[in-house]
Design goal:
Layout: H1 2-17, H2 69-76, H3 95-101, H4 110-125, H5 138-142, H6 150-159
Length: about 170
């Protein structure tokens, strides 16, 4: 009598423990955490051509390996980094570039607005599904219609003649 009861208790504990963690699908923030957009990689270290002629040290100033996202963006879009001076504003040669890239406006609160829109969308999608007997992945429910089926897309590209990498079978 004790063995079947113990087996039932263990099986129940294992079954219930499998429902305890949502893992990566739990999209609510777990804490304040770091801002992933404020972490910038530094440029690689390079050896100077001549050790006799080195730039003067700038304590508390910029370093050659420090990231310069504004300058890098200007160069990537076809501008000149040397023309980018914080006190001078946008140089006249890059004014057309700045005007074209900001023609639809540049909102200051993009993250807050996007988070609020997403929360409202998920709330509207889950209006009739709030009461559940078992835990449900709300993210999957809300965005089910917008999800891309990778196997279907792969077949579409293969039929079109595009080279596609191999994919695991659908049932795995």
């Amino acid at each position: 009598m004790r063995a079947p009861l113990a087996l039932i208790v263990i099986a129940t504990a294992v079954a219930v423990s499998g429902c305890s963690s949502k893992g990566l699908r739990d999209i609510r923030p777990q804490g304040t955490g770091p801002d992933e957009f404020s972490v910038l990689p530094v440029k690689p270290l390079t050896q100077p051509k001549d050790y006799a002629v080195l730039p003067a040290p700038t304590p508390g100033g910029a370093n050659l390996t420090d990231p310069n996202p504004m300058g890098d963006a200007v160069v990537a879009l076809g501008g000149r980094e040397s023309a980018l001076d914080p006190g001078q504003g946008v140089p006249s040669s890059d004014q057309a570039l700045v005007s074209a890239s900001s023609r639809y406006g540049v909102p200051a609160n993009t993250r807050v607005a996007l988070a609020q829109e997403d929360a409202d969308f998920r709330k509207r999608q889950a209006r009739w599904t709030r009461v559940r007997l078992f835990p449900v992945d709300r993210y999957e429910q809300a965005y089910r219609k917008d999800a891309i089926d990778p196997f279907r897309q792969s077949q579409v590209f293969r039929r079109a003649g595009a080279a596609t990498p191999s994919a695991p079978p659908e049932d795995e």
